[in-house]
Fold these 3 entries.
Entry 1:
Amino acid sequence: MDGLRHLPLTPPSVPASPSVSQWCKEEQSKAMSTVTDTTMEELKEWNRRYMDKFGFVFLICASGRGTPEILAELKKRYTNRPIVELENAAHEEMKITELRIQRLFATAEVAAPSVASLDPVTKAGDRLGIIGAYLTAVPKTSPENITGTSLRSKPPITTHVLDVSHGAPASGMEVILEKWIYDSNQPPTFAEQDHPGWKTLGCSETNSDGRSGQLMDIMDYIEPGFFRITFNTGKYAPMGFYPYVSIVFQVRENQKMEHFHVPLLHSPFSFTTYRGS
């Protein structure tokens, strides 16, 4: 599966930077404090099974999780289909990345080490530069200026696309996010697909990890209503069955503080969507 190249499979022979090593210890502190000989052996066995089934390591954001919780999650995810588990692994990697980026900036505020003082081993082991590029890869944005400040680290609505026919992220697919402004209390009907009541909030192209750029402002509270994400599947897969895919969903009043991740799992002759986290 080509998508596996995006997972962090760092060889044991390449030492991690001191900062990353320390963060790993802190993130896994609760797990290590709750581990027993029995659970350790069980974890090893289930990790081996997981690797044999999916072909990549079991990834989970261990911060604040005890060993029993991690083991239970491993057993639960082991039953998934490979394409679903690839998505789960990418999501967990993103959570780990965001946590470490936050710590990186917090550390930088206390002390900013000189780049010249880093030895070659530290430079080779330190993946933070790669992680930063992974997070900040935002291709095209909307013609309208997308701004906004918030306690959130990302917009309330996000998406990404997986090409299930290749088992890899779908790079370069155009995405448009719209909001229904004609009547917020009355949902749009099937006959109103081209109604002027749809307002474009943002547009982008998916990057090499299948994630779109910022499609709307970052804000603490999303205004309730009806939203539509449209994917230009016809341009991405000209010989496919679908010229485009539109997904309409509702954000309710009691959900305005929540995050809505609406992925697309696409192949030339089928597609699936769901509400992620």
Note: Confidence is low (pLDDT under 50) at residues 1-17, 112-118, 120-125, 127-145.
Entry 2:
Amino acid sequence: MSTASCLLSEDQFKCFICQNVFTDPVSTPCGHNFCKNCVTENVCDDVPFQCPVCEKMFFPRPELEVNTLIAELLDEFRRSALRQNAEAEIPGPVSGNLFTKNRKIAILCGMVLLFILSSQVNHSPPLTEETEGNAKGSMEDIWSCSPAKRCQNLTSGQNWTAVGPLSASQLEQIFTEVMKKETPRLLIRAELMRAKHYAVDVTLDPDTVHPKLILSDDRKQVSCCNPTGNLPHDPNRFRYLKYVLGEQSFSSGRFYFEVQVKGKTNWTIGVAKESVSRTDRVRLIPRSGFWSLTVRNQNEFFGLSSPPVPLSLKSGLEKVGVFVDYEEGLVFFYDVDAAALIFSFTGCHFTERLHPLFGPGHNNDGTNGAPLIITPVSIVPQ
């Protein structure tokens, strides 16, 4: 297929309800697009929203804001149509080829952005404004690469008859590069955004905290070390491992929480089954009831399976997201700020309640004195 020959049509910008070109286009969480007035008129807030295309139900009703990406694509399509009409009115091979070349570039931009948008259809929620901005930024990166430069530089040449065939080849190559580069990143971002919709409120359980650890008054932070280590005896308290469990536990469904690790050189985060040993020295591996991620010496990352899996991560990790799907046996760890997957456990067989697990590590003379902080989950990317 020649990319340059696949022209966008007006049908691709038509609302399913009114069958007219979009006015203030909005996107539903399931990825379908409508005029804002068409999909929001005559509805009640206390009634579940049903997508007119796939009939999927949403409650509470989603906030449908104008999708600026589609609106901009529609504007570009209209401008491209005007240029096409202008081309027909301008005589001469040079003008015609120049307009053809510009139109192909505009069409490619639209196709690439539509591709990026469509990659989100099966991964709710829809693209946010930041994701749209990142997509535009990525387009700028692609245009700066060598094939795009060669295509762009054609305007400065004198042999205009070469514009058509060269543009088709170059644009198809650029389109392939965009798809290869953007698809994995945007799919992970979409999965992270979906995971955030299962956010739970986690507080630290003072009955399980090791005597050397210190909890904040709101039980959202834990650090080391308590100089006295005097805490009441409790059978649930960790006596050997310097850890604390979340007070909340889960035996079904999905849950997600985030932990700030900024300023720390050693820490462990994950989930543990309710019956893990509190008094013995045990290995933090799935067979012992632990599914966790750990960091040593600031930049030595390990997924604690058996054997541990060393991980190569960029420095500067500040916030970790933990997502669990109980029935599917999944535990995912995300770099929240980079919207990247760090490590995952799959094929887990959970048979009892799971608790969030936190280990702030030793103080190390103050170099690891910062606390682990359970932070509120923001659905909008930072």
Note: The chain has two domains: 3-196, 213-375.
Entry 3:
Amino acid sequence: MASFNRVILIGNLTRDPEVKYIPSGMAVAEIGLAVNRYFNDKSTNERKEETTFVDVTLWGRQAELAGEYLAKGRPVMIEGRLQLDTWEDKQSGQKRSKLRVVGETMQFLGSGPGEGGGGGGGGGSRGGSARGGRGQAPASGGNSGGDDFYSGSSFSGGGAPDDDVPF
């Protein structure tokens, strides 16, 4: 039977990205993402919130852009795959494992706390708007920190997407 390993997460960074470079010169960024789930507790009839913390690894240009544009508290969408890391604990000798996301595409959403809501468009993109499709963040600096949304496939450098997708 065929399998499919794909994850899409929208959340806020729990810490500033840690960008390092491997010997080949490729950038690797480690970010922490807090993803919220809202639900109604049937026993108390109250609306509750559950937060899941996810470690994400970004490679190459995605890693460089994360280091340049992202900071703790900023909302972002990550699309990627799950990867299980396994190792042996040096102190106890026990086998350990941890599930992480390897990010393949990234979209910056909205603006972070304390940034005054940013410039331009306002609203809409924070909830995962389809503006820009599945592209990457821009290769150039483009507009600075207050933009609501970045996407490589439709980013024209002028601050607005080229296509007007109705969904």
Note: The chain is about 5% helix and 40% strand.
